[in-house]
Structure formats: C-alpha cells, structure tokens
Amino acid sequence: MSMTALTPTYRLEAGTGVADVWWKSGSISVKASGTETGGSFAQVESDDPRGSAPPLHVHHNEEETFYVLDGELSVFVDGDELRLATGDFAVVPRGVPHAYLVRSERARMLVTFSPAGFEQAFVELGVPKTGEAAPADDVFPGPAEAGRVFAAYGCEIVGPPPAA
Fold it and tell me: What's the Cα-to-Cα distance from 64 to each of 7, 11, 12, 99, 156, rounded to whole Å?
C-alpha cells in the first residue's frame, strides 16, 4: 500500500462518520479511513452491547489500539486479559492473537488501525445505518463469509469469541 499525504483538514459532526454501519449487535462509525489519512491510519468508533465479542483473530497488516470512551471490556491478547474501563487505552501489535468482550451494559471505544485498510472490512460487511433501529441478525454474513472478507484484508480468524 502506498502512503500519501493527509487530505486537508476535515470535520465530522457529532454522531456521524465517513461511513456508518450496523455491525452485528452494535455499530461502527468510521471517523477516518485510509482515504482521509493517506493510508497511514484509520479510526472507527465502535458501540457494542454487553457480551459483544469478535472471534479470536490476528491482524497481519496493522497494529490495533483501543481507547475506551465509555464502559468496560476485557481485551484478550496472546493469552493475557487486559481489563479496560472508561479512559483506558491498549495497543495490540500486528501478528498477535486477540479479541475483546464487552462487560458493561454498553461499551463505546475508538479503535485505530495503523496502517489503514482494515476499516473497509466493516464497511463491506456491515449494513448502512439509515435510522436508529438495528436490522435483524439474519442480514449479516455468516462466519464463513465474514472470515473470507477478513482474510482479504489480512485478518485471520484463529479461534472462537471469548465467553462471558
């Protein structure tokens, strides 16, 4: 991936993103994609209910950071559990197996991928937000399709989601 200069400064209004999608039981708002950052990083706001957890996975192309805006979650990194609450921050290096589990009623976090690219998997697989009501679960791709798309973005599923 070729890195170029950042685009001119831009501003997003509260509650908006350059792409906003329903993602499984929560939502993803892309605040900055590779287009806006010249490929150097992407940042998404994730809003998930209690019990939300992606499968254990490895990013082969990017580092991932978690900054908790509100709520509590556990980030499982290479066999260790990091308990995070509002204001906490964690970094997961590329190549390291990890997953998270939302422990509070809801958790909102800013997740950064560096370099950019993986944020497009959420845009590709998610359902565009057109209102406040989340769509039914059956509109989202199953594990095999999600795994295929994630793999195209350099993300390998290596285990099940963590259990509560």
Answer: 22, 23, 22, 11, 14
